[in-house]
From TrEMBL:
This is Ribosomal RNA large subunit methyltransferase J. InterPro entries: RlmJ (IPR007473), SAM-dependent_MTases_sf (IPR029063). Signal peptide: none annotated. It catalyses: adenosine(2030) in 23S rRNA + S-adenosyl-L-methionine = N(6)-methyladenosine(2030) in 23S rRNA + S-adenosyl-L-homocysteine + H(+). The active site is at D170. Its EC number is 2.1.1.266. Monomer. Belongs to the RlmJ family. It comes from the Bacteria. GO terms for biological process: rRNA base methylation.
Length: 288
């Protein structure tokens, strides 16, 4: 249960896609003054060193943030990535990327005075690191870290008093049970808070549960009469799965600008992160 550590994968191509969708969505929702509840159901450690520890074993940041920062083609328009690049640079020394901010850290950096952030994590090592990393931000009145199962604890937060919220659900999926737990969590959340924005990350793998997940999420969204947007990014297409080659984001109640944003963003990511002719992307939406 506790074998997965996101530190091995921090800053990889999947993080890049997930965090760009997250930042765009939060930023759009913050254009209105009303308080916003942000939730991460599987928060991890929140902040990761890329130059020591687990990240140096896999070196997956080389497929993601390192390539974005160091290989920016002057002929390519990186405007859709600028807010993300600025946030990553803000926690690093000049001209170096030594640390990568996980979703909790990114959301914390985006908080306005009226917003609140709730973070769930069960891993005995990561929860301690998460508490330490969040504490350095001195936002105790706005951020709460809970050593709880985000799948089962999310519903107690919903609906937020402001009726405005964004929930990121990104389990490891190492345990096949996560696919079932995700669907249960999502339906319980929608029962309580049908208008919330739900951002669901998933790995694209050659297993039945992974292949079926987008269709099942689409069915859930449509059963509740909610709009959705679905994006996938693949950086290569190897016959084996020795490493993660592709991932997706399925968003229920997306901000209305998300689909056009992704249509501009994904070609740039394919060019920046694609390793060979197997690189590809797709974006679908109920609103088009």
């Amino acid at each position: 249960m506790f074998s997965y550590r996101h530190a091995f994968h921090a800053g990889n191509h999947a993080d890049v896609l997930k965090h760009l969708v997250l930042i765009h969505s939060v930023s759009y929702l913050q254009e209105k003054d009303g308080a916003l509840l942000l939730v991460d159901t599987h928060a991890g450690a929140g902040l990761y060193s890329l130059r020591e520890g687990f990240a140096t074993v896999s070196q997956e940041a080389l497929t993601g943030i390192d390539r974005i920062i160091s290989n920016q083609d002057p002929q390519t328009n990186y405007s859709e990535l600028q807010a993300y690049i600025d946030l990553v640079n803000s926690i690093n020394p000049p001209n170096r990327i030594d640390f990568y901010p996980g979703s909790p850290f990114l959301m914390a950096k985006l908080l306005r005075t009226q917003d609140r952030l709730r973070l769930f994590e069960l891993h005995p090592s990561d929860i301690d690191l998460l508490e330490q990393n969040i504490k350095q931000l001195h936002l105790d009145r706005q951020i709460e870290v809970r050593k709880e199962d985000g799948f089962t604890s999310l519903k107690a937060l919903l609906p937020p008093p402001s009726r405005r919220g964004l929930i990121l659900i990104d389990p490891s999926y190492e345990n096949k049970q996560d696919y079932f737990l995700l669907e249960t969590c999502l339906t319980e959340a929608l029962d309580r808070f049908a208008t919330g924005s739900y951002l669901i990350w998933y790995p694209i793998l050659q297993r039945t549960e992974s292949i079926q997940l987008p269709k099942r999420l689409k069915a859930i969204a449509e059963n509740y009469g909610r709009p959705w947007t679905h994006a996938e990014l693949r950086i290569t297409h190897e016959p084996t799965e020795r490493r993660l080659q592709a991932s997706g984001m399925f968003v229920i109640n997306p901000v209305w600008t998300l689909h056009p944003y992704l249509e501009k963003l994904l070609p740039t990511l394919q060019t920046a992160l694609g390793e060979d002719a197997g690189a590809s992307y797709r974006v679908l939406s109920s609103q088009t």
